[in-house]
């Protein structure tokens, strides 16, 4: 069995909060309202995953499932230069796929798992895990079926993570709660996906906006990681100090 490793996020404060970085053979979920930095963390990990393990990297390729169309190759190139890596080489090592349905998302996982038997991978990103479930199971009375399929998908993801010793980073949305008035406002502290997702995620990160480009991360409901927060910036180089 390969040794579990920790992948740097690009911020030492965030790495410290996580006990040295995002661990492999586990699922790490980040949730928070729009623009809280979920995708920017994903894009930064695409680069650090390819760095040597002695620099906090994962020394492997990246698989990226995008359900929202927010992956940006130009941004990857920009973050790669911060770490002194060749942008084209970095992009070539990212197996990118846009998913359009839950079924498609499942098929992509199978395809990715097949690729992982051929080449060393260090990271799997799913940005976001719930978006297509929300669309495909939007009807009343479909919730229990949704949760059942979600559970199946998450156990497939966990199996991939353990089998190939890779870091899994998934993003999640927050619940829209009826406010006092007519409008629905997002409740930043309530991830969707219910107990199925809560149970599957090894570590849950709650992200919120600070001043300007500052972002704050808190470990959500973990029995083994300390309470506390880490502050980082989103800058030209991705996740920064
Ligand atoms: P949703 O997917 O909408 O829920 O948001 P998210 O949590 O994924 O937010 P995301 O990671 O996209 O963060 C958006 C923030 O990142 C923006 O508000 C900017 O502050 C920052 N950002 C995005 N792109 C760039 C860029 O090219 N350069 C810099 N410096 N910052 C950027
Ligand atoms: Mg996003």
TrEMBL record:
Compartment list: Nucleus
Keywords of this entry: ATP-binding, Cell cycle, DNA-binding, Meiosis, Nucleotide-binding, Nucleus
Q: Does the keyword Secreted apply?
A: no
- Gene Ontology terms for molecular function: ATP binding; ATP-dependent DNA damage sensor activity; DNA strand exchange activity; double-stranded DNA binding; single-stranded DNA binding
Query: Which GO biological process annotations does it have?
Result: chromosome organization involved in meiotic cell cycle; DNA recombinase assembly; DNA strand invasion; mitotic recombination; reciprocal meiotic recombination
Grouped into one coarse class, the protein's main location is: nucleus
**Which family is this sequence assigned to?**
Belongs to the RecA family. DMC1 subfamily.
Q: Would you tell me the protein name for this molecule?
A: DNA repair protein RAD51 homolog
This chain's source organism reads Stentor coeruleus
